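TA notes, week 10

Several of you asked for a full example with nothing omitted. So below is the full record: structure tokens for the whole chain, then the designed sequence directly under it. When grading your own attempts, check the secondary structure regions first.
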């Protein structure tokens, strides 16, 4: 089990709307843009922020929810997750241990309408 002290990097990602587009950290999706480069075998702390209801799904590695806002995990946050349900204006901290296979992966909002509008970003694992 990973611990926050194991995190080698802290990253921040915001899920927001802007001018009719759905953005991750202020950027529209591009298949050529990489939002994060992670190393297999390492653990990272990701802070996720939402302006609207965004269930955020991360491919490759499950994660643990460490906090929501200034409090601890919520009542449904125990155990390993691949999706976290962020409410409007909510912030969460998650801990991810990257393990598995090298390659390019995505993380994205799992609201169908947002997913269809490409509210996602790439990360690479090496």
């Amino acid at each position: 089990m990973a611990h926050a002290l194991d995190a080698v990097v802290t990253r921040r990602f915001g899920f927001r709307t802007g001018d009719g587009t759905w953005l991750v950290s202020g950027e529209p999706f591009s298949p050529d843009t990489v939002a994060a480069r992670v190393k297999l075998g390492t653990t990272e702390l990701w802070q996720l922020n939402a302006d609207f209801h965004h269930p955020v799904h991360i491919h490759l590695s499950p994660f643990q929810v460490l906090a929501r806002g200034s409090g601890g995990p919520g009542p449904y946050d125990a155990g390993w997750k691949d999706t976290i349900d962020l409410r409007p204006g909510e912030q969460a901290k998650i801990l991810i241990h990257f393990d598995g296979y090298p390659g390019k992966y995505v993380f994205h909002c799992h609201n169908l309408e947002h997913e269809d509008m490409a509210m996602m970003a790439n990360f690479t694992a090496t």
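The chain has one domain: 4-125. Use that as a sanity check on your answer.
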